[in-house]
């Protein structure tokens, strides 16, 4: 279980959040600018307002630096090391060890053909798959996705969700992703936490939490 208690200011916005992540894949759903990214950054340790507590499996990790939390954050920018090949990007968190694991992750995300290529030569979809593979290389207990699947075509997005599900089933790790895309939410979420005006207003199944968007939900579900 992952739990966050947060109160902080981001620009003109005040965030007062108590979030408990217990389901395998939780989607933090909200409009652009609602504070979703700030919540992920607080969990990852990249933003640490004073009144913040992060508990992982009951242990307080609030004082740990980002690199010691073992909670990677993948954004839609796919921030890879530009001077490293795809394979070298994966080997970096492994400190050069367990090269077989890196090769397996490249195969799993179907980017083994670009293992010796640098990020500038990759397509956006290839960069995103390499970024996801690198995040899994350190065997995280929690994976944070900040619009990491946005901008991808639907078949590729579906493929990545399936692959992340397989990894999750084997590892037992939690995924917390943020999006304002309704179809992505329906495709991935075991549970949805809705963020409005800096607060979590509701958690539960997508149909219940997003019931005010019933017409759009029905069109996506084909009901």
Keyword list:
single chain; 223 residues; alpha/beta; Rossmann fold; 2 domains; 4-stranded antiparallel beta sheet; 9 helices; globular
What report would you give on this structure?
The structure is a single chain. This protein has 223 residues and is α/β, with parallel strands linked by helices. The protein has 2 domains: 2-72 and 141-221, Rossmann fold (3-Layer(aba) Sandwich); 81-139. Helix content is 36%, strand content 26%. The protein has helices spanning 36-44, 66-69, 86-91, 99-108, 124-137, 154-171, 182-188, 206-209, 214-221; strands at 2-10, 13-21, 25-29, 51-56, 59-60, 73-75, 142-146, 174-179, 191-196, 199-204. The strands form 2 sheets. The chain has a 6-stranded mixed sheet with strand order 6-7-8-3-9-10, sandwiched between helices. Strand 7 (142-146), helix 6 (154-171) and strand 8 (174-179) form a beta-alpha-beta unit. The longest helix is centred in the C-terminal third of the chain and has 18 residues, at 154-171. It starts with a strand and ends with a helix. The relative contact order is 0.19.
């Amino acid at each position: 279980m992952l739990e966050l208690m947060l109160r902080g200011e981001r620009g003109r916005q005040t965030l007062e959040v108590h979030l408990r992540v217990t389901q395998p894949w939780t989607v933090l759903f909200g409009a652009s600018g609602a504070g979703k990214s700030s919540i992920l950054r607080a969990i990852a340790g990249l933003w640490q307002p004073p009144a913040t507590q992060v508990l992982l499996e009951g242990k307080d990790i609030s004082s740990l630096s980002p690199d010691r939390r073992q909670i990677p954050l993948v954004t839609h920018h796919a921030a890879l090391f530009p001077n490293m090949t795809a394979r070298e990007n994966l080997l970096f968190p492994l400190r050069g060890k367990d090269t077989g694991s890196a090769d397996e992750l490249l195969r799993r995300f179907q980017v083994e053909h670009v293992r010796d290529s640098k990020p500038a030569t990759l397509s956006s979809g290839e960069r995103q798959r390499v970024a996801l593979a690198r995040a899994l290389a350190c065997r995280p207990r929690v994976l944070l996705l900040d619009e990491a699947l946005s901008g991808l075509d639907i078949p590729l997005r579906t493929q990545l969700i399936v692959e992340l599900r397989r990894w999750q089933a084997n590892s037992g790790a939690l995924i917390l992703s943020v999006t304002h895309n309704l179809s992505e939410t329906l495709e991935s979420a075991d549970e949805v936490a809705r963020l409005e005006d800096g607060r979590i207003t509701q958690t539960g199944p997508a149909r219940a939490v997003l019931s005010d968007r019933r017409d759009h939900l029905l069109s996506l579900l084909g009901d």
